[in-house]
Structure formats: C-alpha cells, structure tokens
Design brief:
Strand content: 5-15%
Order of helices and strands: EHEEHEEHEHEHEHEHEHEEHHHHHHH
Number of domains: 3
Helix content: 40-55%
CATH superfamily of the largest domain: Response regulator
Strand order of the largest sheet: 7-6-8-9-10-12
Largest sheet: 6 strands, mixed
Shape: globular
Distance between the termini: 41 Å
Number of strands: 12
CATH topology of the largest domain: Rossmann fold
Number of helices: 15
Radius of gyration: 24 Å
Structural class: alpha/beta
Length: 406
C-alpha cells in the first residue's frame, strides 16, 4: 500500500476496542457544526467512540480522508457517491445519511423536516403585511423542492400567489459561475413586484440576493424582505442587513444520527429507506425581514403595539382602538380591510405564537407560561391552545421535542 494513502485505512476494532466512527459534513457550512455537538452528546451519555473527520489543520496534523478507501466501524455522511455506497456495503460498514439528496439511495436517513421549513418561513413572511411573495430554489435538489412546495402551499392558503424563481448553479460553468449567478439574480429581481417577500432555499442564496440588492439600489427590507434557511451564522451576518433564517436543527440531527448508527453497529438491521425527520424549532428573525408593508399609519401602529404587548398581556381590541382616532367599530373595519383579518385574530395569533415558541424551545411548566403571559390559570391557557390548534400543550410539546423513534 502506498504510504501516502495510509491515513485512509483504519483497522477495524478488535473485541473490546473503542469503535471508530467517521463523520463527513460540509466544511464550508457553519450550520452543520451543531451536528458534532449532538453526536458528542449522544456518546457522552451512552458509549465511547473514536471520532474521525476532515479538519483543516494547516498541515500540522496527519490528514484524514473519508472516502471509498476508509475502513472503520461506522459512518455519518452528508451525501455520498454511488461508488462509495457500493464499497461501504461491500465492507459492511454501517452508514447514516444526512442529506435529502441521498434519501432512499442505500442507507437510513436523518434530515430536518423540509416541508415544515417552508411552511414556517411562509408563516413568518405572512406577518409582514406583504401582498407579494417569491420562492427562490433549485429544481435539481430535493430539499429545495420540498421547501418551495410547502412555502407556496402556505402562501396560496392565505390567498396570495407565489412567484417561483428556479436557479440551478450546478448547470452553470465553474469558471465565473458567480458572474452568471449575479446576472440571473439581477434580472429576476428587476421582474418582481415590490414590496415583496423572498424565501431562499438556503442562506448562501439569501445572502447573495441581499448583497446584489445593495449593489443595484434595492432597499432591504423596505422593498424586498429576504429570508433563508439554516441560520448559518457566517452567511447571515455578512449580509447587510443581517439575514433572517429558519434554523437548522443540527444538534437533534447529530444526536439521532448517532443513536441510529449505534443501533446498527450493535447488530440491528435497519431498512435502507428508514427516515427520521427532525422538527423545526426556531426562526431567527433579523433585520432583513424587519418591515411591515402596510402603509396605513393606524394599522401599522396597532400591529406594532399588539406584537409588542400581546405576548405578555391579554390586551383587548378596545385598548388598541383607543390608541387611534377611530371608534371601536370603525377601527375594527379599518384594520380588517388592510390586514385581511380582525384585530382580535391578530392578538390571538401573536399570543398563540408565543405559547408555541415556549413549548418548543423551553421546558417551562404550563403554569409558568400561563403566569408569564397573564392567563387566568394554566387551564385557561390549555383551553385557548386546544381551541386554536386542536392539541393540548402537552401533545404539541411532545411533537416538537421528540423525534421519530425506531
């Protein structure tokens, strides 16, 4: 064997030795880093593994390659080639896939719920008072198709149209690809009605859209609100203004992938088409969607007040109307004409969203949430929640804080 390639080969463990597990995720994507935290969390509480991954050590450490020549006890991969899959199966190396693009192509899969990503992005965009919406995706990618379909469906359900912009970067020549992307984005931006809300398939595209808007003099978020996916800190923060994004549930993906791989390495057979989808918990709202596109001052001030106060206090419509120059009935009519729903429905929506966020992202007891939001009792909160969602809070929390089990 060529000594230059020796780092590719890892002797399979003998009985009693620590398993060797390889992890391969995109090095350019900071949103994948929490995957490691999830994997480490699993092995810290369950079993010890020797982890191997590709790292840039400025050549101070022996390089590790995880390819078709790698030999260890298990792999967690973000995409793989057909040739790699064939060889891993030949050597009976258990593999867990983390990409929707390799779904059903040979190994069990753990991925975020892409349909829910699109749905939640639409729900966020619909709170901005916009009348025009656009999804920017890649028709050659499964995750993009799922996110786009869900976004479009939710927008249609609200009574609006969704303009789809499809760009396939891989079909553009590598040399000067960014130039072709720039030309296409400028062209598509010029066609869109404004103001408009754009949901991009990922943060790289969302960040690129914002950068080009700045170059051509389109105001973000005043003329175009932009939202991405993954909450990649680098792409979101290099944007001016910073990019809003649906967060990638990396820790849960990593934990479930490690749990699944452990089961496989311990001899249990898992179907190749086995799929675990991870619920989406967070939307990171930043300045790129910090707008409200209703020009009417009465409605704008009312919505801003409701969204500031309703999460912590059960305000009445009469209190909001009293801040305007209109009568209660006139305010109700005026608000509904501009928003498409009543101020009472806006208050309910804001309070419901606060409860949902608390249930998904904390372990606070229902009694504490009810107290913080000034409900009369936990039972009152539960009745309100079930009336609006069809579920009791416990069911909702269970749905979002537990992933599919084997």
């Amino acid at each position: 064997m060529d000594s230059s390639n020796q780092h590719n080969f890892i002797k399979t463990k003998s009985k009693g030795e620590m398993p060797v597990v390889g992890i391969r995720v995109p090095s350019w994507a900071s949103f994948t880093r929490p995957i490691f935290r999830g994997i480490v969390d699993f092995i810290r509480n369950n079993e010890k593994w020797q982890l191997q991954t590709l790292v840039d050590s400025t050549n101070e450490m022996a390089p590790v390659l995880i390819d078709e020549n790698w030999r260890g006890d298990g792999l967690i991969l973000f995409r793989y080639s057909p040739e790699e899959a064939k060889i891993f199966k030949q050597y009976e190396i258990p593999v867990v896939n983390l990409s929707a693009e390799c779904l059903g192509k040979g190994f069990p899969t753990v991925i975020p719920n892409n349909f829910e990503i699109g749905k939640q992005a639409a729900q966020h965009m619909l709170t901005l008072g916009l009348k025009h919406f656009s999804y920017w995706g890649d028709p050659s990618r499964n995750y993009s198709i799922e996110r786009g379909n869900a976004f479009e469906q939710e927008i249609h359900s609200a009574g609006y149209n969704c303009i789809k912009v499809q760009i396939e970067p891989d079909h553009l020549p590598w040399d000067n690809r960014w130039v072709k992307m720039h030309e296409r984005i400028v062209k598509e931006l010029s066609r869109l009605p404004k103001p408009v809300g754009i949901f991009a398939k990922d943060d790289m595209l969302g960040s690129n859209i914002i950068r080009i808007c700045n170059e051509v003099g389109i105001l973000v978020p005043d003329e175009i609100s932009v939202m991405g996916t993954n909450a990649d800190e680098v792409f979101c923060q290099i944007s001016t203004p910073p990019l809003s994004s649906v967060a990638y549930p990396g820790e849960s993906v990593g934990y479930e992938a490690a749990r699944l791989l452990s089961i496989m390495m311990n001899g249990k057979s898992i179907e190749n088409d086995h799929l675990i989808t991870i619920p989406i918990k967070d939307i990171i709202a930043r300045e790129s969607t910090n707008t409200f596109a209703i020009e009417d001052l009465v409605v704008t001030q009312a919505v801003q007040y409701i969204r500031a106060v309703a999460p912590v206090y059960p305000i009445h419509v009469s209190e909001v109307a009293a801040r305007s120059s209109l009568s209660l009935s006139g305010f109700n009519k005026h608000f509904s004409q501009h928003m498409g729903h009543t101020p009472k429905e806006e208050i309910k929506s804001v309070r419901l969203a606060k409860i949902q966020a608390s249930l998904k992202n904390s372990n606070d007891k229902i009694s504490k949430i009810a107290k913080d939001m000034k409900f009369g009792s936990p039972e009152e909160l539960s009745r309100f929640f079930k009336r609006e969602t069809g579920m009791v809070p416990k069911e909702y929390r269970s749905r979002y804080q537990n992933v599919n089990s084997l």
